[in-house]
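::Amino acid chain::
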Amino acid sequence: MVIFLVVYLGRLYVSDYAADVSMDKISASLEQVSGLTDLSEPGVSGLRRFYQIDENDIDSYFFRKAASPMSVDEVLVVKANSSSEAGAYLEAAQAHLESQKNIFEGYGTDQMALLGEASVEKRGAYVWYFCGENAQELRQALLSMI
């Protein structure tokens, strides 16, 4: 029973583990994914506007968003100062996804399909939001690094 408990707790601990990778390396890897060059960089104001995240409260971030308000293509990776702080940023990303679904519900069938396939997850101190045709490819690229 003790061995089972140790193995179980060890797997729980490792399941949220993420290597400490610089945001420069992450952004270089993600920028190699096709279609990402079409997205603009909203900067700190966009981070606050869409996710209510203050740049001073996080370690680093990578954020790209389609210029058109009719497009849901978006890429966000936030590296929090700690794994415990990352939970709040995950909630912000999930709230943003729900907001996008509410906006496009009823008339944006193409956008709703992309939003349904969006990847919003947390691993260690990293939180990501990938939405668009290449969301799963971006997810795999990030997971291979962290």
Notes: The chain has a mean pLDDT of 90. Residues 83-104 form the longest helix (22 residues). The helical segments are 2-15, 23-30, 43-51, 83-104, 109-116, 135-145.
